[in-house]
Amino acid sequence: LGKFDEARQDLDRALSINPNNVEALYNKGTVLQAQGNIHTALECYSTVLGHNPNHSSACYNVAVLLADLGKTEQALTYLSSAIVAQPHFVAALLLRARLLLNSVRT
34 partner at 20 to 30 Å CA-CA among 27, 28, 68, 84? Predict the structure, then answer.
């Protein structure tokens, strides 16, 4: 098994013990995202945000995936949430600026 598969197995095991563990759900989302499982990653992040709507990293990762899917307005909403939760989140600020600039150009 590859490292991502091993990590996913451990995260699945942790979630079988505690299905509401936000850290395990978030990390499973990042593994799925890295493996290209966009929709399943979005489901994990949505569950994280259901437990903690101010989870800035989950908001950011949802925004990245939505931007990749061409859903700019939705991505901007999640980026704004990430920035409200963590005002110095540079990656979120940069992505929001890029998406805003791209929307002006089109």
Answer: 84
